[in-house]
Design goal:
about 550 residues; mainly beta; Chondroitinase Ac, Chain A, domain 3; 4 domains; eleven-stranded antiparallel β-sheet; 4 helices; about 5% helix; about 45% strand
Amino acid sequence: MSLKFKIAVIILVFLHLHGGSQTYAWPVDSPRVITGNYGEIRPGHFHTGLDFSTNGKINYAVYSIEEGYVSRIKVSSVGYGRSVYVTHKDGKVSVYGHLNSFNSNIAPVVKNEQYAKRNYEIEIFPKPFSIKVKKHEYVGLSGNSGASTGPHLHFEIRDGQTEVPLNPLEYFSIQDTVDPTITEVGFYNLADTSSPHYLASYKVELKKNKTYAVKKDSVILNQGILGFAFSGFDQFTPKGNTNNIFSAKVYFDDRLIYSHTLDNIDFADQRFVNEFSELVEKTKTEKVLFQKCFVPTLHPLNFYDQYKNKGRILLTDTNFHKLKLSAIDENANERVIEFYFKTRKLNYYGKPSINSDVYVDCRKDFMIAKKKLQIYIPANTFYYSTGLIFENTIESTGKIIILPTDANLRTTSIIGFEVPPKYMRNKSKLVLKSGSNVLPPIVNHDSVFYSVKNLGWFLLDQDTIAPQIKTQMTQLLFKKNKKTESVSFRVTDELSGIKKYNLFLNDKWVIGEYDAKNDLITYFFDEDSPKTGDLNFKLEAEDRVGNKNDFFRTLKR
């Protein structure tokens, strides 16, 4: 019995036991095109659902996949935007995100809550069965709300007890006869237990028997403790979007040493993507995304199927050895690469990447006050124990440096310092910039603290400028187009970002729909809007360090 046939049988048995794929309805009234799959590697997180194409347009009907009840409704300016959660009798929860609007049973509930809370962004947990839905019942229209980068439906299936997203492709029948593609294989030096270091990589080519081989005749390295990695993708159709590969198995001299399957990714482990994968800059013009087939010191318990010695390859001689990678998609399509490699030197010890000031045991809480800098790193934050080096030149240059930059953090850590006299007057306005991130301060007497998600270079800045508010809607434009359905305001902030806002029409609070990615707050006219007379708009905006601005605009009907 072939491996491909075995996997197909396992998947069919799984689907039969879970009663899923044969009964669930398709969730959107658009062509059956999937543009993003479960487990796809995104910046800072794994994709935990399926993205269904809506042809770059909004307002396709979205349906409940099965009978159930609405158990959660959320409206956010980021994330999934407008989203609906439906609990089903089999214990699963289906999620529909980035919607443009809700159906007539859900929309009034949302609007009432928004006015009651005087907030566009709300989260509701209706009583069980208070909003029932039937199989294939319309729940809303597809859209581009939240952090969506283009119109589509984001769809998930979650375990109702744990809230862990499951791989939806195990519950739907999708035609897929395309084997995964492997483009490159790589090796990491694991002799330094503090962190893996990229060593080398090799292009691969497809042979006539549909297996891959390394383009070089042989792979010769200079290390004795190695980790394997690969770069590749999967497609549902030959010209379809490139998605991630469902499962990978690694064999060393025909012995299975590593296996993972992307079917059960907890939200708590989203940032593990930064350790599981790495975008390697091979040259100034070439970057390759590798998936590591070895296991860090700390890792998600349910992520790996099997591993021996954490997937590490320990060479005890300088002979050639066989390495095999099996890449498998959800439909049991498989692609294999086999090649031989060796090492010239049995180096078992790595050189420390930095001359550390301190050593952090990843299993323990770490706290230090040194160089006028306070650092707190909770236990289980780093995936590896590591050395740290840090410098505090806030007083002279406004900079803090904490290395190494390649130490990935599972959760946030805290850094703080005493405010220098020249900044004391504006201590509540002191933000810390890290790349594109701007962190607001937590003020404690004469010290400020910041919650950070990465190490590296931090630059202190003062945010004293209030949000800027503009609108292109003039009286002339408003009068010219009598069928105007909305008025939009562009709200931007130079540093810390928008924290909250309130929109008023003729001194009454109204719903302003915030589209954070486009810096827009929009009021939509409805049955409650004034039909004649003056429309006196007032928009209040406040950033994350307390700078405020009010904007006024009067339009006449």
